[in-house]
Amino acid sequence: MSLRLEFVTLANQPDANVRLLCQRFRISPTTAYKWLKRFRDSGPAALADRSRRPHHSPDRTNQVVEEQIVKLRQQHPAWGARKLRQRLTTMGCRELPAMSTITDILHRHGLIWPEGSEPTQSHQRFERSAPNQLWQLDFKGHFALPNGRCHPLCVLDDHSRYNVLLRACADERRQTVQQALVDAFRMHGLPSAVLCDNGSPWGSTGTEYTGLGVWLLRLGIQVYHGRAYHPQTQGKQERFHRTLQAEVLARGGWQDCGHVQREFDRWRPVYNSQRPHEALDLAVPLSRYKPSQRSYPEQLPALEYDVGVEVRRVNSQGWIKYRGQVCPVGTGFAGQQVAVRPTSIDGVIEILFGAHTIKTVDLRSLEHLKNDC
Predict the structure, then answer these.
(1) Is residue 53 part of a domain?
(2) What mean pLDDT is predicted for residues 336-356?
(3) Do 146 and 254 have their domain in common?
(4) Which of 310, 323, 313, 314 is nearest to 369 (CA)?
């Protein structure tokens, strides 16, 4: 039901490409239009095999309202009065009490404890102006399992706070991350840029591209790194991690990564389409997200360079040779073709990889290096 709701929400957005969404959700157009019609006729409840909406009566008493508040809080123990009231309103509940009354109800039923409180400090928020302009990529701190460890991989759209990907990984290797990103790209399309930290597999210093970063550049995705020792650069991810910890991981008792993933799959639609978000004026992330129009290419596009630039192949040590000088490019580009373009400053060149400028080099500073590339 959660995937059906996600599909119809995206398909009902202005200028939505329903056929493209069918491909990404792997459903036939016939099935897609069937769910769209049911949704238009009867709303979200029609998407379920059986109705899961709470019983609704226009003559319900205050006791019924209180029971609804308690039930929703039990389902989402980390939600406060504002989120509970907003979600109940979205579900069609009427004559809801004030937030202070809801808080009193939670106290009366023993459903409030210090760990459930939310931070109250105010701060200035920054975000991209449209979906898919920037995705934030990060691992949440890994934790032990009976056999091995779990490394939750989280991908968040900067504009909408929509959780694009939530994967319970057994490691943080490039191959694991790349396959997870392929799944996300096939479903949601390609972002313009990604923001990641300076650890593996994104990069050891943030100044040199890794193999994963080179692959992203080949897809036309710009790669940015947060400032070292400044996790606030990825503040939205840090906030998402706290929510994930409070609403899912704090339960514990995990058996393996598959067990964690099943719970991630259950919770992710709740976060995207049900949980009101404070930073979005209590809207849900799905209401602000649209899939990218740039589809994932199953074959990497060929590298193309303008006429007049000099093309070099990077050797296995990550170097190229240019006009008798040895120029470091990075081991992540080993075996790849790059282009060299002079700048307006004498002796300074730009090294290009596709459409991306990956490095500026002052040849005069390389004169002391041996030309043994």
Answers:
(1) no
(2) 89
(3) yes
(4) 323
Summary count for the chain: helices (H), strands (E): 10, 12
Q: Which of 116, 145, 160 is the last residue of a domain?
A: 116
Q: What's the predicted TM-score (pTM) here? A: 0.72
Q: Are strands 143-144 and 222-225 parallel, antiparallel or unpaired?
A: unpaired
The pLDDT score that the predictor gives to residue 309 is 87
Q: Cβ–Cβ contacts within 10 Å for residue 212, how many?
A: 22
Residue 169 β-bridge partners? 151
- Per the structure, the complete domain to which residue 332 belongs is given by 310-366
Residues 258 and 281 in one domain: yes
Q: What is the pLDDT of residue 126?
A: 63
Task: Say if residue 201 is preceded by a cis peptide, omega within 30 of 0.
Answer: yes
| Cα separation values, 178 from 50, 222, 304, Å | 37, 15, 23
164-208, pLDDT tens digit by residue? 999 999 999 999 999 999 999 999 999 999 998 877 787 655 457
Task: Tell me whether residue 76 is in a domain.
Answer: yes
Taking residues 329-358, report their average pLDDT. 90
Cβ count near 92 (within 10 Å): 12
> Do 87 and 35 sit in the same domain of this protein?
no
Q: φ and ψ at 97, to 5 degrees?
A: -75, 170
Q: Is 156 exposed, middle or buried (0-12, 13-18, 19+ CB in 10 A)?
A: buried
Q: How many other C-beta atoms can be found within 10 angstroms of the C-beta atom of residue 248?
A: 19
Helix (H) or strand (E) holding 155: strand 149-157
Q: Which of 221, 225, 201 is nearest to 356 (CA)?
A: 221
Burial class (CB in 10 A: 0-12, 13-18, 19+), 11: buried
pLDDT tens track for 64-117: 788 788 788 877 777 878 888 888 888 888 778 887 788 878 777 666 644 433
In total, how many domains does the chain have? 4
Enter the DSSP assignment of 219. T
pLDDT at position 42 is 86
